[in-house]
Amino acid sequence: MPAKKRPEGTRAPNGASSIYLGADGKWHGRVTMGVKDNGEPDRRHVERTNESDVIEAVRELERQRDSGQVSEPGSQKWTVETWLTHWVETIAAPSVRENTATGYRTAVYRHLIPGLGAHRLRRLEPEHLEKLYSKMTAAGLKPGTAHQVHRTAKTAFKVAHDRGYMTKNPASLAKPPRVDEDEIVPFTPAEAKRIIAEAGKRRNGARFVVALALGLRRGEALGLKWTRLDLDAGLLRTPRQLQRYPWKHGCEDPHACGARFHKRTPCPSGCKRHKRGCPPVCPPDCVRHAASCPQRRDGGLREVDVKSKAGRRTVGIPGPLLEMLRRQKEAQDAEREFAGTLWHEGGWVFAQPTGHPIDPRVDHDDWKELLAEAGVRDARLHDARHTAATMLLVLKVPLPVIMEIMGWGDAAVAKRYVHVPSEIVASVAGQVGDFLWSDGSEKQPEPPTPQPDAAAILAQLQRMLDATKDPAGHDGDEPPGLRAVG
Protein backbone atom coordinates (compact mmCIF):
# COMPACT_ATOMS: atom_id res chain seq x y z
CA MET A 1 0.00 0.00 0.00
CA PRO A 2 1.61 3.29 -1.05
CA ALA A 3 2.25 5.90 1.60
CA LYS A 4 -0.28 8.71 1.85
CA LYS A 5 0.88 12.06 0.57
CA ARG A 6 1.31 14.64 3.33
CA PRO A 7 -0.99 17.68 2.98
CA GLU A 8 0.73 20.65 1.43
CA GLY A 9 2.05 23.16 3.97
CA THR A 10 2.69 20.57 6.71
CA ARG A 11 5.89 18.76 7.71
CA ALA A 12 6.82 15.63 9.65
CA PRO A 13 7.79 16.13 13.29
CA ASN A 14 11.47 16.12 14.24
CA GLY A 15 12.87 12.61 14.51
CA ALA A 16 10.16 10.97 12.43
CA SER A 17 11.15 8.34 9.85
CA SER A 18 10.84 9.16 6.18
CA ILE A 19 10.37 7.02 3.06
CA TYR A 20 10.68 8.36 -0.47
CA LEU A 21 11.39 7.37 -4.07
CA GLY A 22 14.76 8.68 -5.13
CA ALA A 23 15.92 10.01 -8.48
CA ASP A 24 17.91 6.78 -8.92
CA GLY A 25 14.66 4.79 -9.09
CA LYS A 26 15.18 3.14 -5.69
CA TRP A 27 13.16 3.55 -2.51
CA HIS A 28 14.98 5.16 0.41
CA GLY A 29 14.24 5.25 4.12
CA ARG A 30 15.77 7.34 6.89
CA VAL A 31 15.33 6.64 10.60
CA THR A 32 16.56 8.66 13.57
CA MET A 33 18.10 6.17 15.99
CA GLY A 34 19.38 8.53 18.65
CA VAL A 35 22.18 11.04 19.12
CA LYS A 36 25.85 10.59 18.20
CA ASP A 37 28.67 11.30 20.63
CA ASN A 38 29.20 14.72 19.04
CA GLY A 39 25.55 15.70 19.59
CA GLU A 40 24.38 15.28 16.01
CA PRO A 41 21.32 13.11 15.22
CA ASP A 42 22.18 9.49 14.46
CA ARG A 43 20.07 9.10 11.34
CA ARG A 44 20.36 5.77 9.49
CA HIS A 45 19.71 5.22 5.79
CA VAL A 46 18.38 2.13 3.99
CA GLU A 47 17.55 1.61 0.34
CA ARG A 48 15.58 -1.08 -1.48
CA THR A 49 14.26 -1.69 -4.99
CA ASN A 50 10.59 -1.58 -3.95
CA GLU A 51 8.54 0.30 -1.40
CA SER A 52 7.36 -2.67 0.68
CA ASP A 53 10.95 -3.79 1.33
CA VAL A 54 12.10 -0.36 2.44
CA ILE A 55 9.06 -0.06 4.74
CA GLU A 56 10.01 -3.34 6.41
CA ALA A 57 13.65 -2.20 6.75
CA VAL A 58 12.55 1.07 8.33
CA ARG A 59 10.25 -0.76 10.77
CA GLU A 60 13.11 -3.09 11.74
CA LEU A 61 15.33 -0.11 12.56
CA GLU A 62 12.50 1.43 14.57
CA ARG A 63 12.05 -1.85 16.50
CA GLN A 64 15.76 -1.87 17.32
CA ARG A 65 15.61 1.74 18.45
CA ASP A 66 12.52 1.24 20.60
CA SER A 67 13.94 -1.93 22.24
CA GLY A 68 17.29 -0.30 23.03
CA GLN A 69 19.24 -2.59 20.71
CA VAL A 70 20.81 0.09 18.55
CA SER A 71 24.16 -0.71 16.98
CA GLU A 72 26.89 1.91 17.02
CA PRO A 73 27.19 4.30 14.04
CA GLY A 74 29.64 2.91 11.53
CA SER A 75 29.13 -0.70 12.62
CA GLN A 76 27.68 -1.49 9.19
CA LYS A 77 31.22 -1.56 7.77
CA TRP A 78 32.20 -4.64 9.75
CA THR A 79 32.12 -8.03 8.10
CA VAL A 80 32.70 -11.19 10.11
CA GLU A 81 36.16 -11.46 8.56
CA THR A 82 37.26 -7.90 9.34
CA TRP A 83 35.89 -8.04 12.87
CA LEU A 84 37.42 -11.41 13.76
CA THR A 85 40.78 -10.34 12.35
CA HIS A 86 40.66 -7.11 14.34
CA TRP A 87 39.52 -8.91 17.50
CA VAL A 88 42.08 -11.71 17.49
CA GLU A 89 45.10 -9.55 16.58
CA THR A 90 44.30 -6.24 18.27
CA ILE A 91 42.06 -7.09 21.23
CA ALA A 92 42.67 -10.71 22.24
CA ALA A 93 46.34 -11.38 21.45
CA PRO A 94 47.80 -8.59 23.66
CA SER A 95 45.63 -9.57 26.65
CA VAL A 96 45.84 -13.39 26.80
CA ARG A 97 48.57 -15.99 27.06
CA GLU A 98 50.35 -16.90 23.86
CA ASN A 99 49.00 -20.46 23.81
CA THR A 100 45.48 -19.10 24.23
CA ALA A 101 46.03 -16.67 21.36
CA THR A 102 47.29 -19.55 19.21
CA GLY A 103 44.05 -21.44 19.85
CA TYR A 104 42.02 -18.34 18.98
CA ARG A 105 43.92 -17.87 15.73
CA THR A 106 43.39 -21.50 14.73
CA ALA A 107 39.63 -21.18 15.24
CA VAL A 108 39.44 -17.81 13.47
CA TYR A 109 41.68 -18.37 10.45
CA ARG A 110 41.06 -22.09 9.87
CA HIS A 111 37.31 -22.29 10.51
CA LEU A 112 35.37 -19.09 11.24
CA ILE A 113 36.67 -16.82 8.48
CA PRO A 114 36.60 -19.47 5.69
CA GLY A 115 33.07 -20.49 6.74
CA LEU A 116 31.46 -17.17 7.71
CA GLY A 117 33.83 -14.37 6.79
CA ALA A 118 31.74 -12.79 4.00
CA HIS A 119 28.70 -12.15 6.22
CA ARG A 120 27.89 -8.67 7.45
CA LEU A 121 28.63 -8.69 11.17
CA ARG A 122 25.22 -7.30 12.13
CA ARG A 123 23.39 -9.86 9.99
CA LEU A 124 25.09 -12.96 11.38
CA GLU A 125 22.53 -15.37 12.80
CA PRO A 126 22.80 -18.39 15.12
CA GLU A 127 21.78 -20.63 12.22
CA HIS A 128 24.89 -19.61 10.27
CA LEU A 129 27.09 -20.85 13.11
CA GLU A 130 25.10 -24.07 13.54
CA LYS A 131 25.49 -24.85 9.84
CA LEU A 132 29.24 -24.29 10.16
CA TYR A 133 29.45 -26.71 13.09
CA SER A 134 27.49 -29.32 11.11
CA LYS A 135 29.84 -28.98 8.15
CA MET A 136 32.85 -29.36 10.43
CA THR A 137 31.60 -32.61 11.96
CA ALA A 138 30.48 -33.90 8.54
CA ALA A 139 34.03 -33.31 7.29
CA GLY A 140 35.34 -35.66 9.98
CA LEU A 141 36.36 -33.13 12.65
CA LYS A 142 35.65 -34.02 16.25
CA PRO A 143 32.75 -32.33 18.09
CA GLY A 144 35.32 -31.00 20.55
CA THR A 145 36.92 -29.01 17.72
CA ALA A 146 33.54 -27.48 16.87
CA HIS A 147 33.10 -26.65 20.55
CA GLN A 148 36.45 -24.85 20.63
CA VAL A 149 35.41 -22.83 17.57
CA HIS A 150 32.07 -22.09 19.24
CA ARG A 151 33.75 -20.80 22.40
CA THR A 152 36.04 -18.57 20.35
CA ALA A 153 33.11 -17.18 18.37
CA LYS A 154 31.16 -16.56 21.57
CA THR A 155 34.06 -14.61 23.06
CA ALA A 156 34.72 -12.57 19.91
CA PHE A 157 31.10 -11.67 19.21
CA LYS A 158 30.48 -10.77 22.85
CA VAL A 159 33.03 -7.99 22.50
CA ALA A 160 31.31 -6.82 19.30
CA HIS A 161 27.95 -6.86 21.08
CA ASP A 162 29.31 -4.98 24.11
CA ARG A 163 30.68 -2.30 21.80
CA GLY A 164 27.37 -1.91 20.00
CA TYR A 165 28.47 -3.43 16.68
CA MET A 166 25.92 -6.24 17.00
CA THR A 167 22.41 -6.13 18.45
CA LYS A 168 22.84 -9.65 19.86
CA ASN A 169 25.53 -12.29 20.25
CA PRO A 170 24.53 -15.05 17.81
CA ALA A 171 27.03 -17.50 19.30
CA SER A 172 25.31 -17.31 22.70
CA LEU A 173 22.10 -18.52 20.99
CA ALA A 174 23.67 -21.13 18.69
CA LYS A 175 23.81 -24.76 19.81
CA PRO A 176 27.14 -26.54 19.24
CA PRO A 177 27.21 -30.32 18.74
CA ARG A 178 27.09 -32.50 21.82
CA VAL A 179 30.42 -33.62 23.21
CA ASP A 180 30.61 -36.94 25.03
CA GLU A 181 33.02 -36.37 27.87
CA ASP A 182 35.35 -39.24 28.64
CA GLU A 183 34.75 -40.76 32.04
CA ILE A 184 37.65 -39.99 34.36
CA VAL A 185 38.42 -42.77 36.82
CA PRO A 186 41.01 -41.81 39.48
CA PHE A 187 43.68 -44.35 40.28
CA THR A 188 42.80 -46.76 43.05
CA PRO A 189 45.10 -46.91 46.10
CA ALA A 190 46.57 -50.17 44.77
CA GLU A 191 47.28 -48.62 41.37
CA ALA A 192 48.82 -45.52 42.96
CA LYS A 193 51.11 -47.67 45.10
CA ARG A 194 52.29 -49.64 42.05
CA ILE A 195 53.02 -46.39 40.22
CA ILE A 196 55.00 -45.04 43.20
CA ALA A 197 56.94 -48.28 43.54
CA GLU A 198 57.88 -48.28 39.84
CA ALA A 199 58.69 -44.55 39.90
CA GLY A 200 61.22 -45.17 42.64
CA LYS A 201 63.26 -47.26 40.19
CA ARG A 202 63.36 -44.63 37.44
CA ARG A 203 65.42 -41.52 36.83
CA ASN A 204 63.32 -38.44 37.74
CA GLY A 205 60.67 -40.83 39.06
CA ALA A 206 59.79 -38.43 41.88
CA ARG A 207 58.31 -36.17 39.23
CA PHE A 208 55.30 -38.53 38.86
CA VAL A 209 54.96 -39.07 42.61
CA VAL A 210 54.64 -35.29 42.95
CA ALA A 211 51.69 -35.44 40.55
CA LEU A 212 49.99 -38.22 42.52
CA ALA A 213 50.61 -36.90 46.02
CA LEU A 214 50.30 -33.14 45.48
CA GLY A 215 48.24 -32.88 42.31
CA LEU A 216 50.67 -30.56 40.53
CA ARG A 217 49.95 -29.79 36.90
CA ARG A 218 52.50 -30.92 34.31
CA GLY A 219 53.89 -27.43 33.76
CA GLU A 220 54.11 -26.81 37.51
CA ALA A 221 56.00 -30.06 38.15
CA LEU A 222 58.43 -29.60 35.23
CA GLY A 223 58.93 -25.96 36.24
CA LEU A 224 59.94 -26.75 39.83
CA LYS A 225 63.28 -25.36 40.93
CA TRP A 226 65.32 -26.23 43.98
CA THR A 227 65.03 -22.66 45.22
CA ARG A 228 61.25 -23.21 45.55
CA LEU A 229 61.62 -26.33 47.70
CA ASP A 230 62.33 -26.18 51.42
CA LEU A 231 63.35 -29.74 52.19
CA ASP A 232 63.91 -28.93 55.85
CA ALA A 233 60.47 -27.41 56.43
CA GLY A 234 58.78 -29.78 53.96
CA LEU A 235 57.21 -27.01 51.86
CA LEU A 236 56.93 -26.42 48.12
CA ARG A 237 56.02 -23.25 46.20
CA THR A 238 54.59 -23.09 42.67
CA PRO A 239 54.80 -19.50 41.38
CA ARG A 240 56.01 -20.47 37.89
CA GLN A 241 55.55 -23.24 35.33
CA LEU A 242 57.26 -24.57 32.21
CA GLN A 243 55.43 -24.46 28.87
CA ARG A 244 56.29 -25.15 25.26
CA TYR A 245 55.44 -22.41 22.77
CA PRO A 246 55.23 -22.91 19.01
CA TRP A 247 58.00 -21.46 16.87
CA LYS A 248 57.33 -18.63 14.42
CA HIS A 249 58.99 -17.96 11.10
CA GLY A 250 61.57 -15.18 11.17
CA CYS A 251 62.15 -15.30 7.42
CA GLU A 252 60.47 -13.23 4.71
CA ASP A 253 58.81 -16.15 2.84
CA PRO A 254 57.45 -18.76 5.29
CA HIS A 255 55.84 -20.79 2.48
CA ALA A 256 59.10 -21.25 0.60
CA CYS A 257 61.04 -21.78 3.82
CA GLY A 258 59.00 -24.86 4.76
CA ALA A 259 58.53 -26.18 1.20
CA ARG A 260 60.63 -29.30 1.77
CA PHE A 261 58.36 -30.30 4.67
CA HIS A 262 55.03 -29.73 2.89
CA LYS A 263 52.86 -32.84 2.98
CA ARG A 264 51.11 -33.22 -0.36
CA THR A 265 49.51 -36.67 -0.06
CA PRO A 266 47.85 -38.41 2.90
CA CYS A 267 49.57 -41.21 4.75
CA PRO A 268 48.79 -44.75 3.58
CA SER A 269 46.42 -46.92 5.55
CA GLY A 270 48.13 -48.49 8.56
CA CYS A 271 50.90 -45.88 8.69
CA LYS A 272 53.41 -46.66 11.44
CA ARG A 273 55.64 -43.63 10.94
CA HIS A 274 53.64 -41.24 13.13
CA LYS A 275 53.14 -42.30 16.76
CA ARG A 276 50.70 -39.50 17.68
CA GLY A 277 48.47 -39.69 14.62
CA CYS A 278 49.14 -38.77 11.01
CA PRO A 279 49.28 -35.00 10.28
CA PRO A 280 46.87 -33.62 7.66
CA VAL A 281 47.84 -32.69 4.12
CA CYS A 282 49.24 -29.15 3.94
CA PRO A 283 47.08 -26.47 2.27
CA PRO A 284 48.39 -24.88 -0.96
CA ASP A 285 49.50 -21.73 0.88
CA CYS A 286 50.98 -23.56 3.90
CA VAL A 287 53.15 -21.37 6.14
CA ARG A 288 53.73 -23.93 8.90
CA HIS A 289 56.94 -25.85 9.76
CA ALA A 290 58.43 -22.83 11.53
CA ALA A 291 60.50 -25.14 13.76
CA SER A 292 62.78 -25.79 10.77
CA CYS A 293 63.20 -22.11 9.89
CA PRO A 294 66.85 -20.98 10.25
CA GLN A 295 65.58 -17.68 11.66
CA ARG A 296 62.83 -19.13 13.87
CA ARG A 297 61.78 -17.06 16.90
CA ASP A 298 59.55 -16.86 19.98
CA GLY A 299 59.23 -20.61 20.50
CA GLY A 300 60.57 -23.46 22.59
CA LEU A 301 60.37 -24.06 26.33
CA ARG A 302 59.65 -21.02 28.47
CA GLU A 303 59.20 -20.41 32.16
CA VAL A 304 56.00 -18.43 32.72
CA ASP A 305 53.68 -17.49 35.57
CA VAL A 306 51.08 -20.05 36.65
CA LYS A 307 47.54 -19.77 35.31
CA SER A 308 45.99 -17.75 38.14
CA LYS A 309 46.61 -16.09 41.47
CA ALA A 310 45.24 -19.19 43.21
CA GLY A 311 47.87 -21.26 41.40
CA ARG A 312 50.66 -19.42 43.24
CA ARG A 313 50.53 -21.53 46.36
CA THR A 314 52.59 -23.25 49.03
CA VAL A 315 51.82 -26.85 49.96
CA GLY A 316 53.23 -29.37 52.40
CA ILE A 317 55.28 -32.36 51.22
CA PRO A 318 54.58 -35.81 52.75
CA GLY A 319 57.57 -37.40 54.52
CA PRO A 320 58.12 -40.29 52.04
CA LEU A 321 58.06 -37.85 49.14
CA LEU A 322 60.58 -35.64 50.95
CA GLU A 323 62.95 -38.60 51.09
CA MET A 324 62.47 -39.21 47.35
CA LEU A 325 63.27 -35.55 46.61
CA ARG A 326 66.41 -35.69 48.75
CA ARG A 327 67.56 -38.75 46.79
CA GLN A 328 66.68 -36.88 43.59
CA LYS A 329 68.98 -34.03 44.62
CA GLU A 330 71.84 -36.40 45.43
CA ALA A 331 71.47 -38.14 42.06
CA GLN A 332 71.40 -34.79 40.23
CA ASP A 333 74.52 -33.59 42.04
CA ALA A 334 76.32 -36.72 40.80
CA GLU A 335 75.08 -36.10 37.24
CA ARG A 336 76.29 -32.49 37.41
CA GLU A 337 79.76 -33.61 38.43
CA PHE A 338 79.86 -36.27 35.71
CA ALA A 339 78.65 -33.86 32.96
CA GLY A 340 81.30 -31.27 33.84
CA THR A 341 81.35 -28.41 31.33
CA LEU A 342 78.38 -29.89 29.44
CA TRP A 343 76.11 -29.18 32.39
CA HIS A 344 73.65 -26.29 31.89
CA GLU A 345 72.70 -24.95 35.30
CA GLY A 346 69.04 -23.99 35.39
CA GLY A 347 68.17 -25.03 38.92
CA TRP A 348 65.47 -27.46 37.70
CA VAL A 349 64.41 -30.21 40.11
CA PHE A 350 63.69 -32.55 37.19
CA ALA A 351 66.20 -32.12 34.38
CA GLN A 352 67.93 -33.87 31.50
CA PRO A 353 71.39 -35.44 32.12
CA THR A 354 72.89 -32.13 30.95
CA GLY A 355 70.76 -29.93 33.22
CA HIS A 356 68.34 -28.70 30.57
CA PRO A 357 64.61 -28.78 31.40
CA ILE A 358 62.49 -31.76 30.37
CA ASP A 359 60.33 -31.35 27.27
CA PRO A 360 56.61 -31.98 27.99
CA ARG A 361 56.42 -34.40 25.06
CA VAL A 362 59.26 -36.49 26.51
CA ASP A 363 57.53 -36.33 29.88
CA HIS A 364 54.36 -37.70 28.27
CA ASP A 365 56.23 -40.67 26.81
CA ASP A 366 57.94 -41.36 30.15
CA TRP A 367 54.55 -41.43 31.88
CA LYS A 368 53.16 -43.96 29.39
CA GLU A 369 56.23 -46.17 29.85
CA LEU A 370 55.87 -45.95 33.63
CA LEU A 371 52.24 -47.10 33.50
CA ALA A 372 53.14 -50.04 31.26
CA GLU A 373 56.03 -51.15 33.47
CA ALA A 374 53.91 -50.78 36.61
CA GLY A 375 51.13 -52.89 35.08
CA VAL A 376 48.59 -50.09 35.47
CA ARG A 377 45.84 -49.27 32.96
CA ASP A 378 46.52 -46.54 30.41
CA ALA A 379 45.51 -43.08 31.64
CA ARG A 380 46.35 -39.43 31.19
CA LEU A 381 48.95 -37.85 33.42
CA HIS A 382 46.29 -35.29 34.37
CA ASP A 383 44.29 -38.15 35.92
CA ALA A 384 46.90 -38.16 38.68
CA ARG A 385 45.64 -34.67 39.59
CA HIS A 386 42.08 -36.03 39.83
CA THR A 387 43.45 -38.80 42.07
CA ALA A 388 45.08 -36.28 44.40
CA ALA A 389 41.87 -34.27 44.71
CA THR A 390 39.79 -37.39 45.40
CA MET A 391 42.32 -38.55 48.01
CA LEU A 392 41.89 -35.26 49.87
CA LEU A 393 38.11 -35.78 49.85
CA VAL A 394 38.50 -39.29 51.29
CA LEU A 395 40.74 -37.87 54.02
CA LYS A 396 37.91 -35.40 54.84
CA VAL A 397 40.13 -32.37 54.23
CA PRO A 398 38.04 -29.13 54.39
CA LEU A 399 37.14 -27.54 51.06
CA PRO A 400 39.21 -24.33 51.57
CA VAL A 401 42.31 -26.46 52.18
CA ILE A 402 41.59 -28.66 49.15
CA MET A 403 41.26 -25.54 47.01
CA GLU A 404 44.55 -24.22 48.36
CA ILE A 405 46.47 -27.45 47.75
CA MET A 406 45.05 -27.91 44.25
CA GLY A 407 45.43 -24.25 43.27
CA TRP A 408 41.76 -23.58 42.57
CA GLY A 409 40.25 -20.13 42.79
CA ASP A 410 36.66 -21.33 42.25
CA ALA A 411 34.92 -24.09 44.21
CA ALA A 412 32.99 -25.08 41.09
CA VAL A 413 36.16 -26.75 39.80
CA ALA A 414 35.72 -29.37 42.54
CA LYS A 415 32.81 -30.86 40.61
CA ARG A 416 35.14 -31.77 37.76
CA TYR A 417 38.06 -33.06 39.81
CA VAL A 418 36.64 -34.73 42.90
CA HIS A 419 35.14 -38.21 42.38
CA VAL A 420 33.35 -40.48 44.83
CA PRO A 421 35.31 -43.77 44.94
CA SER A 422 33.41 -47.04 44.36
CA GLU A 423 34.44 -48.21 47.84
CA ILE A 424 32.47 -45.35 49.37
CA VAL A 425 29.44 -46.09 47.19
CA ALA A 426 29.56 -49.74 48.31
CA SER A 427 29.88 -48.64 51.94
CA VAL A 428 26.77 -46.47 51.59
CA ALA A 429 24.88 -49.47 50.21
CA GLY A 430 25.94 -51.47 53.27
CA GLN A 431 24.78 -48.74 55.62
CA VAL A 432 21.40 -48.53 53.83
CA GLY A 433 21.03 -52.30 54.13
CA ASP A 434 21.81 -52.20 57.84
CA PHE A 435 19.28 -49.43 58.37
CA LEU A 436 16.38 -50.93 56.43
CA TRP A 437 16.78 -54.65 57.07
CA SER A 438 18.04 -54.70 60.65
CA ASP A 439 15.41 -55.43 63.33
CA GLY A 440 17.43 -53.47 65.88
CA SER A 441 17.34 -56.30 68.45
CA GLU A 442 20.63 -57.82 67.42
CA LYS A 443 23.83 -55.96 67.76
CA GLN A 444 25.59 -55.78 64.44
CA PRO A 445 29.09 -57.30 64.50
CA GLU A 446 31.96 -54.90 64.18
CA PRO A 447 33.68 -55.01 60.78
CA PRO A 448 37.13 -56.56 60.83
CA THR A 449 38.64 -53.47 59.22
CA PRO A 450 37.54 -49.85 59.51
CA GLN A 451 35.17 -48.85 56.70
CA PRO A 452 35.25 -45.43 55.06
CA ASP A 453 33.07 -42.89 56.82
CA ALA A 454 30.82 -42.68 53.77
CA ALA A 455 28.25 -40.33 55.26
CA ALA A 456 30.88 -37.82 56.32
CA ILE A 457 32.66 -38.00 52.96
CA LEU A 458 29.47 -37.57 50.95
CA ALA A 459 28.48 -34.67 53.21
CA GLN A 460 31.85 -33.07 52.46
CA LEU A 461 31.22 -33.48 48.72
CA GLN A 462 27.74 -31.96 49.10
CA ARG A 463 29.26 -28.95 50.90
CA MET A 464 31.65 -28.59 47.94
CA LEU A 465 28.78 -28.56 45.50
CA ASP A 466 26.78 -26.15 47.67
CA ALA A 467 29.78 -23.83 47.78
CA THR A 468 29.66 -23.55 44.01
CA LYS A 469 26.21 -21.99 44.34
CA ASP A 470 27.06 -19.76 47.31
CA PRO A 471 27.18 -16.12 46.14
CA ALA A 472 29.33 -15.30 49.14
CA GLY A 473 31.95 -17.89 48.18
CA HIS A 474 35.33 -17.29 46.62
CA ASP A 475 35.28 -15.44 43.31
CA GLY A 476 38.59 -16.82 42.06
CA ASP A 477 40.57 -13.65 42.65
CA GLU A 478 41.73 -14.33 46.18
CA PRO A 479 42.75 -17.81 47.35
CA PRO A 480 41.98 -19.02 50.89
CA GLY A 481 44.27 -17.73 53.60
CA LEU A 482 45.77 -21.10 54.57
CA ARG A 483 49.20 -21.28 52.90
CA ALA A 484 50.67 -24.60 54.04
CA VAL A 485 49.55 -28.06 55.00
CA GLY A 486 51.60 -30.09 57.45
The rough form would be described as globular
Described by strand count, sense and barrel closure, the largest sheet is: 3 strands, antiparallel
Q: Ranges with pLDDT <50 over ≥5 residues?
A: 448-452, 470-486
What is the mean pLDDT?
83
Separation of termini? 83 Å
Query: How much is the radius of gyration in Å?
Result: 31 Å
Q: List SSEs in N-to-C order.
A: EEEHHHHHHHHHEEEHEEHHHHHHH
- Strand proportion: 5-15%
Q: Write out the strand line-up for the largest beta sheet, numbering strands in chain order.
A: 1-2-3
Count of separate DSSP helical elements: 17
Number of beta-strand segments: 8
- The quaternary structure here is single chain
User: How does the helix and strand content classify structurally?
Assistant: mainly alpha
Into which percent range does the helicity of residues fall?
40-55%
GO molecular function, one term: DNA binding
Pfam families: Phage_int_SAM_3, Phage_integrase
Biased composition (Basic and acidic residues): 466-477
Domain Tyr recombinase: 182-430
